[in-house]
Design brief:
heterodimer, A: alpha/beta, globular, B: 441 residues, alpha/beta, 2 domains, 10-stranded mixed beta sheet, 23% helix
Chain lengths: 280, 441
């Protein structure tokens, strides 16, 4: 490096400070460090490190069995998965120490790959209960059914959903597309700080995919963030990510911008299968 | 065993009141009490009573309430038990005795007859002679025999051909005041002639707190060609009560029995829903829900006899058991050799909320035809962990998630109730029971 002297050093030093300040001041949402997890005795995540800041959308891609869905489940707190190492900090809090409901109350939302059917509980009641639990956790008053209907109306339009769906049991008898829309509806109503979409695009036709993507795009704000877990690139034509990470065998083997997704679409995952040991 | 008590009581009854009505009635009573004497109360050796001991009933002495002990009630007392519908056709029975003042049978549409049994015995002897005691089997079942010997109060409902009755007929069986030791042998006859349609609700309720009385109810139903009968039984007896209730139906061609049986009351309770699919294309849809707690023992037995080709049955029974309660489900499906193309589905699901709660579930299929489609399934389990996680992941706390899922388990079968007022009331009741919430799903 060329020696730098005098005023120029000061100027560079000043800019370095500004950049560093800016970095520190970045609104960090999620900080995953060396996360490891297993299910049924099998190690799935083998050291994931990932930082997500406000305003960013991160796509997590990878072949079947790479651990991308596990990452989503672990962040949401699915008790089936056992965390064996690493840390996850969410808005400065130790996320792994929180129960699933506490994570939701803190602002984490995961859209399920397979939304669960709950016959007997209406969609409206379920959503209002969730909404009120979140408000209570933030020290706000609960809303009554009428106030809640107002809130719902706007959000129903967003996901192009018939209001009659609110009176039906949660996901019971819904088509695949309806279930995914219902997930996005929940997301719209609960307005999470961090949204995680766990292969929301799987099994969707192009119209349903567009509705889901439009919903996510509309909800994109400078103060929230999203992790989009997907197997296919096509969702990313509609939800344009800021970063793309490729998982293989429980590790991030490559990160890049949105163009990485296109490269994966073209070349498949095989060229990345070389595990991270080579890089380490 | 206290059979002699009933024999003695029968002799008194035969001499005083039991001989009233048409001439064939007393011989029918005598024949029934003889069968009861021969059969005795069932023991667990009896296949149909394998999981339920009736010795708590057999060892006590229950007597028919004398008229002098009839408790005076006002319409306001029964208002909470009328589903907010004062306008329904309603017969009210207090401690086993018909109360004309509390009943309302004035506004009957043309082609519909609704009477109390004693009045029917006087005014409609022909109708009774054709059907009474012809469907409910007292030859082989002791409780039906006992009921047949002592029946005096109950309802008779007749729907003429092609008449569709939109308003439900509500039979309200109440215990009130000091009902301990009472026996109520209630007998109801429902005749839906060809292409008739009706809804009959039987509800059993206690205004008397924890009285130890015995309800022994039998309902016979005749469904003519193309008739539809919706029968809703709501068993909410007192927590110390004993209840044995039987619905026995006989169905002609293309008729449909739609039964819903709710059981939440009683210390020892048994409900039998029996139907005979005697006509081509006839079918039965049976739904049931039992909610038990404490030391309750509640047993539901269903028997669907497919005796004609192209008959169908659909059955879903669900139970939620808490405390040290004991539930029994025995679902019999009998397919006769001539009942080809029978289509039967049976399901029984149970949710155990406490380690002391117990359920015995026994699907029982006997199939003697070779071209049939019959399935059955039974589950006993705890709440679905995936659904629990789903709710928690939306911010709903573990405790509330459990309560809501328990409610939802029951609500799934409540949706089958065809009468909106009753569906709403059962939803509110179960919501309160399992979540403590006052209203609004």
């Amino acid at each position: 490096m060329r020696p730098v002297i005098g005023g120029r050093l000061l100027v560079v030093g000043y800019w370095w400070l500004v950049v560093e300040q800016y970095q520190l001041g970045r609104d960090n949402v999620l900080d995953i460090r060396n996360l490891q997890a297993r299910v049924a005795g099998n190690d799935i995540l083998k050291g994931i490190t990932l930082t997500v800041n406000a305003g960013e959308v991160h796509a997590v891609m990878g072949p079947n069995g790479s651990g991308k869905s596990t990452l989503a489940q672990v962040l949401a707190g699915n008790p089936v998965y056992e965390v064996t190492g690493g840390t996850v900090t969410f808005d400065g809090r130790d996320l792994l120490a929180l129960q699933p409901e506490e994570r939701a109350q803190a602002g984490v939302f995961m859209a399920f790959q397979y939304p669960v059917e709950i016959p007997g509980v209406s969609n409206a009641y379920f959503l209002r209960s969730a909404y009120n639990e979140l408000r209570k956790a933030r020290g706000q008053d609960e809303v009554d059914p009428l106030e809640f209907l107002d809130i719902m109306e706007k959000n129903l339009t967003l996901v192009d959903m018939d209001p009659a769906m609110l009176n039906r049991s949660v996901n019971a008898g819904f088509s695949g597309g309806e279930k995914k829309r219902n997930e996005i509806l929940q997301m719209a109503v609960l307005r999470p700080r961090l949204a995680i979409l766990d292969e929301t695009d799987s099994g969707l036709d192009i119209d349903a995919l567009r509705v889901v993507a439009d919903g996510v795009n509309t909800l994109r704000r400078p103060d929230n963030a999203a992790i989009v877990v997907t197997h296919y690139q096509r969702l990313l034509n509609h939800i344009v990510p800021d970063f793309v990470h490729v998982l293989s065998a429980g590790r991030i083997v490559k990160s890049g911008g949105k163009e990485l997704a296109l490269e994966l679409e073209e070349k498949g995952y095989d060229w990345l299968e070389a595990p991270a040991e080579a890089l380490a | 065993m206290t059979q002699p008590v009933y024999m003695q009581e029968f002799r008194e009854f035969a001499a005083n009141g039991g001989g009233e009505g048409p001439s064939w009635l007393l011989p029918l009573r005598r024949s029934a009490i003889d069968r009861f004497a021969a059969l005795g109360f069932p023991t667990p050796k009896n296949e149909d009573w394998h999981f339920t001991s009736v010795s708590p009933i057999a060892e006590r002495e229950f007597r028919v309430a004398p008229a002098a002990r009839i408790v005076k009630l006002s319409p306001a007392d029964i208002a909470p038990l009328t589903f907010g519908r004062a306008d329904w056709i309603r017969l009210v029975f207090v401690n086993g005795r018909f109360s004309s003042t509390l009943s309302s049978m004035a506004q009957l549409p043309a082609g519909v007859r609704v009477l109390d049994l004693a009045t029917a015995a006087r005014d409609e002897p022909g109708l009774l002679e054709r059907h009474l005691g012809k469907i409910a089997d007292y030859q082989h079942t002791a409780f039906t025999a006992l009921n047949t010997a002592f029946m005096r109060d109950g309802a008779v409902i007749h729907i003429s051909p092609n008449v569709e009755l939109d308003t439900p007929v509500h039979l309200l069986f109440l215990s009130a005041g000091d009902a301990s030791g009472n026996a109520a042998h209630l007998r109801t006859l429902i005749v839906a002639e060809h292409h008739a349609r009706a809804t009959v609700i039987e509800s059993y309720a206690a205004l008397s707190g924890a009285a130890g009385y015995f309800t022994n109810a039998v309902t016979e139903a005749v469904l003519g060609d193309g008739a539809t009968l919706a029968h809703i039984k709501l068993q909410g007896e007192s927590e110390r009560a004993f209840h044995v209730g039987t619905l026995q139906a006989r169905q002609a061609r293309d008729s449909h029995l739609v039964s819903f049986s709710y059981a939440a009351g009683g210390e020892l309770a048994r409900t039998n829903i029996y139907t005979f699919l005697g006509g081509d294309g006839s079918g039965a849809t049976l739904h049931g829900l039992y909610l038990l707690d404490g030391t309750q023992h509640v047993d539901q037995q269903t028997r669907i006899e497919h005796a004609s080709p192209n008959t169908f049955s659909r059955e879903v029974y669900k139970g939620i058991l808490d405390g040290a309660s004991h539930g029994v489900f025995n679902g019999q499906v009998y397919v006769r050799p001539e009942a080809q193309k029978t289509d039967g589905k049976q399901e029984n699901n149970n949710l155990l909320l406490s380690p002391q709660a117990r359920v015995d579930t026994k699907p029982q299929l006997e199939i003697y035809a070779d071209d049939v489609k019959c399935t059955h399934g039974a589950t006993v389990g705890r709440l679905d962990e995936v659904a629990l996680f789903y709710m928690k992941s939306r911010g709903i706390g573990a405790d509330m998630a459990r309560k809501l899922l328990t409610y939802a388990f029951a609500a799934g079968v409540i949706e089958a109730v065809g009468v909106a007022e009753i569906r709403t009331e059962l939803q509110a009741l179960t919501l309160k029971r399992f979540t403590g919430a006052a209203a609004g799903l």
